[in-house]
Amino acid sequence: MDAGTDHDAEGVETEVLLAGCAAGDRSALARIYAAEAGRMLGVAERILKRRALAEEAVQDAFVQIWRRADSFDPRLGRGRSWIYAILRNRALNILRSEARTDLVEEPDDLERPSEGDDPETMVLKLSEASALRRCLERLDTRRRAALVLAYTEGLSHGELAGRLGMPLGTVKSWIRRSLSTLKECLG
User: Which of 58, 105, 166, 182 is the most exposed, fewest CB within 10 Å of its CB?
Assistant: First the structure.
């Protein structure tokens, strides 16, 4: 069997295993894990540069593979490509969320929000000497609220738009501009 045929056999096997996952066969997921987890960890480490984050990305990817196996369509591409696309997307999402946490000088700089804390209360919990607090206070109140909610509660743009009663495009623009302003201020 030549290398091309072996690669095709792996692809067909992955597609069969994905069909098994879609049918609820946990052993199919375990076989995909056994075959791909090592390579997936290497790919995730190249993207994320940190092993702990790479392991998180691989674990999250396998959860998504299990949950979404029924959405895989072999007419649209290979099973392995689909799996690695899920991994790549998860790793990039982790990178984006890590970029948000890089804005905080000290992890304890921003206390965990208490139940019922509004964004302004959260900003006030920051030390008065904190560069982050000074920079946040320069932002418009509504933009600051959107950014603080996104960071402290992990809300997506869509969730923020719904919570604030604002159009999605506006919220995306606010977050992008506010992060840019904070980076400049903290730089």
Answer: 105
